[in-house]
Design a protein that fits this description.
Hypothetical Protein Tm841, Chain: A,domain 3; 6-stranded mixed sheet; 4-stranded antiparallel sheet; about 325 residues; alpha/beta; 10 helices; Alpha-Beta Plaits
Length: about 325
């Protein structure tokens, strides 16, 4: 029933009978050619990377073999999933066409994500996420298409498992492998349900990839870092898994870390304050950046995270 399919499959032409999804190991240049080839085969094309030559590939098409061959020509496809739209489960089970689901570490971050329009799965700090609970959260969105953002590279595998389970049950789920909650929030900020699904996911992926993140924490022991020796009580700024700043206190650490991040350029600085971080720190940071970088917009949120007194994002 083409009418039913149009309702169930909000984005993409009804002329295509299959949804094809797979993970692809490939370099960037090969992926550019893959996008072009897939656009010739169908629509709702999305090729989203994690920055480490691993890509989520999605499209609607009629020629399954040609789509998979295109993946083989570009790299090494794996976890291939094919869904025939005519076999989808109960028509009308989806109450809305699209949703975004984010994994966050609770507190005020949950409110931030919900206020921005996302459904939320909340976990404790360093707490694992069960794939069954995540699959249930995907179902609970009641959306035909869902973009799932883990916000942590360690959660990408469980997100992929839950997404695969949801796809087997007829839900169209794409994992956008965000590495931090700020990347997830940046992607959510450009989410536009009125756009075609593939175009929307690409815009979200570009926003996430364009967001660099770093954080402050207080050293508990003496240690040797890339930027020198730290003592207990020193404030450390960490970016890309490495200590890049050692400061005497949080206020100074926030300034040094923000200025270091802006050496690479940026238009927006977003600060997430921890649960016990004084708001005066944010006021001081915002005042300094308005003076030293008047071209930069500063956004402050009470993130409520307990593991880091301050998380910074630059985009």
């Amino acid at each position: 029933d083409r009418t039913t399919l149009t309702t169930e499959r909000e984005a993409g032409s009804v002329e295509y009978d299959y949804e094809v999804m797979f993970l692809l190991e490939a370099g960037g240049p090969a992926v550019d050619g893959l996008r072009t080839r897939l656009a010739e085969l169908g629509d709702s094309v999305a090729v989203v990377g994690d920055g480490r030559d691993l890509w989520n590939v999605h499209l609607h098409c009629n020629d399954i073999g040609a789509a998979i061959e295109a993946g083989i020509a570009a790299g090494r496809p794996q976890d291939i999933t094919v869904v025939r739209f005519a076999d989808q489960s109960t028509p009308g089970r989806f109450a809305r066409p699209r949703a975004v689901l984010m994994i966050v570490t609770g507190g005020a971050l949950s409110g931030l994500a919900r206020d921005a329009g996302a459904a939320v799965v909340t976990r404790g700090v360093d707490e694992p996420v069960d794939e069954k609970d995540l699959a249930a959260a995907l179902t609970a969105t009641q959306a035909r298409q869902v973009v799932l953002m883990p916000g942590d590279p360690d959660l990408v595998p469980v997100a992929e498992i839950a997404a695969a389970a949801a796809r087997r049950d007829g839900q169209d789920v794409l994992v956008l492998p965000t590495a931090s909650v700020l990347q997830s929030l940046s992607a959510l900020a450009v989410h536009d349900p009125s756009r075609r699904a593939g175009e929307d996911v690409v815009a979200m992926a570009e926003a996430a990839a364009g967001t660099r993140t770093a954080a402050l924490f207080v050293a508990e022991t003496e240690a040797l870092t890339w930027v020198g020796r730290c003592e207990p009580g020193d404030v450390l700024g960490i970016a890309d898994g490495e200590v890049v700043v050692i400061a005497p206190d949080l206020a100074v650490g926030a300034l040094w870390l923000a200025h270091r991040m802006l050496l690479g350029g940026g238009e927006i600085v977003t600060a997430l304050l921890g649960a016990r971080t004084d708001g005066a720190l944010a006021d001081g940071l915002a005042a300094d950046l308005r003076r030293t970088h008047p071209e930069v917009d500063v956004v402050i949120h009470r993130g409520g995270q307990t593991e880091y007194p301050l998380v910074l994002g630059v985009e």
